Structures are given as structure tokens and as C-alpha cells.
């Protein structure tokens, strides 16, 4: 017989769990292996696989939690709205409830909005919770869809771009605009708070247009009604915001600031 040939025999094993079992045993070189219950071996293998799967799942959860935390840290959501979700929003009038519903749907269907590049305009009375709702959407986008979202006031966006006009700036205007073009969702707040120069109108257009061309959704927030907002931001900005299924929510209810 060739030394490489393996001998095989059937052993009887008396397993305390499974009783008498007939199991295959192999002779490797001179020694017969230990006979162990085949059912116990099978059960242990299944248990090992389950343990492995559990640890893989918990590793995946740790990775996911860390990625979400990083995205939240970079979102620049103002501390006042950090952790304030759509669920915390008190809709005390029918139109507030309708506005909340639109925001909820927008957040829930964000992946679809991202595919189509559908934006949102929240405009109207001050103190009606527009920033709260937009930050609530941004937090859902990050923690439920693992997408990136950035919040900025329009003033901060203007400053960031205008800073690049300085002779010693190491960042180009394009770089500054791409900063706002990169996130999956961009929230631009306080539109119309300050006087809008032609330069500022152009900056806002560049940001909105670059996102529009990349099919990335933008949320614009303003205390102005839609007509003065259109005048302020420019028709071409508002046109792009309305395309690809973009929505407008008019906040025409009374301010609840101070009562909430
Ligand atoms: Zn057994």
C-alpha cells in the first residue's frame, strides 16, 4: 500500500448528548484520529459561524456609527439645532402640520431626491421653525441614509467665497464653491437677511447651479415670501430650485418662538 493512501474505518462513539453514533475515522500515517460525535461537530460549526456573523455585524455597526458621527461633526448644524429632529417639531396649525409632512417625506425619500436632484425652498414668516425642519432633514440624511449634509448661512457662504478674492488667498474661488457643491445635501439659511449685491447673487447662483448640474439637492431658507425671495436670489436660482420635482413650502402661520 502506498504511504500516501489514507485508511478509513467506522468507529462507534457514545455521545452523552446524541447517544451511539457510527462515525468515520481516518488513519494518517500510523495513527488513527480521535473519534468524535459527528452531530456535535456539526452543531459546533454552526455555532462558530453564528458567532463570526455576530462579530461581523457588530463591527459593521461600529463602522456605521463612526461614519455617522464624522458626518454629523462636519455638518456645521448650529448647536441650537444639534439633535433636534423632525419628531421634536411641534406642528400646532394645519399648515405647520402640512409643512412638517412634506419635510418628513423629503427626508424619508432622500435617496430618490438625490437621484433626481430635487430641492426644497422653505420660505415665509420668521420664527416658524424653518431652520429646525431643515436641520431635522439634514440629520435624517446623515443618520438614516448615511449621506453627507452641510448647513451654512448664506452670509458664511458669501464670506468663504469672497475670502478667495484676496491676493494672498491660497484657495481659489472654484475651490470655495466646490466646498458647497460636494455634500449630498446643502442647507443655505438666512437668504435675504442682508442686502444682496450683484456679486452675492452670482455666488449664490454658482453654488445652486453647480449643485443643480450634479443633481444634488439644496434646501434654501428665507424669511421672505416667494416673490421678494425670487427678486433677491434671482429668477435663475429659483428656477433651478423648482426643477426635478423641487418643492416650495410657504410658512404662513404665526411664529411660535417664545411660546415653545
Ligand atoms: Zn454528540
Give an account of the 3D structure.
With 260 residues, this protein is of the alpha/beta class. It folds into two domains: 1-74, no CATH class; 75-251, 3-Layer(aba) Sandwich (Rossmann fold). The chain has nine helices and eight strands. The chain has helices spanning 38-74, 94-108, 110-116, 130-143, 154-162, 173-181, 198-213, 226-233, 235-242, and strands spanning 7-15, 19-28, 31-32, 120-124, 149-153, 185-191, 218-222, 247-251. The strands form two sheets. Strands 5-6-7-4-8 form a five-stranded parallel sheet, with helices on both faces. The protein has a three-stranded antiparallel sheet with strand order 1-2-3, with no helix packed on it. Strand 2 (19-28) and strand 3 (31-32) form a beta hairpin. Helix 5 packs antiparallel against helix 6 (173-181) and helix 7 runs parallel beside helix 9. The longest helix is centred in the first third of the chain and has 37 residues, at 38-74. The chain is elongated and about 95 Å long. The model has no long low-confidence stretch (mean pLDDT 91). The structure holds zinc ion (ZN). The site of zinc ion has 6 residues, from helix 1. Residues 116-242 form the AAA+ ATPase domain. One of its GO terms (molecular function) is ATP binding. InterPro entries: AAA+_ATPase, IstB_ATP-bd, P-loop_NTPase. This is DNA replication protein DnaC. Pfam families: IstB_IS21 (PF01695).
Amino acid at each position: 500500500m502506498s504511504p500516501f493512501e489514507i485508511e478509513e474505518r467506522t468507529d462507534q462513539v457514545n455521545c452523552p448528548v446524541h447517544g451511539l453514533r457510527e462515525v468515520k475515522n481516518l488513519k494518517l500515517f500510523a495513527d488513527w484520529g480521535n473519534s468524535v460525535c459527528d452531530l456535535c461537530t456539526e452543531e459546533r460549526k454552526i455555532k462558530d459561524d453564528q458567532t463570526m456573523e455576530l462579530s461581523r455585524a457588530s463591527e459593521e455597526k461600529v463602522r456605521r456609527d463612526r461614519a455617522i458621527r464624522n458626518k454629523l461633526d462636519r455638518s456645521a448644524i448650529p448647536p441650537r439645532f444639534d439633535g433636534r429632529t423632525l419628531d421634536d417639531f411641534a406642528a400646532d396649525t394645519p399648515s405647520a402640520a402640512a409643512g412638517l409632512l412634506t419635510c418628513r417625506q423629503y427626508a424619508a425619500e432622500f435617496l430618490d431626491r438625490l437621484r433626481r436632484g430635487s430641492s426644497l425652498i422653505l420660505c415665509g414668516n420668521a420664527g416658524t421653525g424653518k431652520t429646525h425642519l431643515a436641520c431635522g432633514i439634514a440629520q435624517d440624511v446623515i443618520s438614516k441614509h448615511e449621506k453627507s449634509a452641510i448647513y451654512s448661512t448664506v452670509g458664511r457662504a458669501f464670506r468663504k467665497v469672497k475670502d478667495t478674492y484676496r491676493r494672498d488667498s491660497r484657495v481659489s474661488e472654484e475651490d470655495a464653491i466646490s466646498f458647497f457643491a460636494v455634500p449630498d445635501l446643502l442647507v443655505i439659511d438666512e437668504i435675504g437677511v442682508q442686502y444682496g449685491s450683484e456679486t452675492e447673487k452670482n455666488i449664490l447662483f454658482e453654488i445652486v447651479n453647480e449643485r443643480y448640474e450634479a443633481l444634488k439637492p439644496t434646501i434654501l431658507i428665507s424669511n421672505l415670501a416667494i416673490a421678494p425671495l425670487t427678486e433677491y436670489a434671482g429668477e435663475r436660482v429659483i428656477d433651478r430650485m423648482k426643477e426635478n420635482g423641487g418643492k416650495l413650502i410657504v410658512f404662513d402661520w404665526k411664529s411660535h418662538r417664545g411660546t415653545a
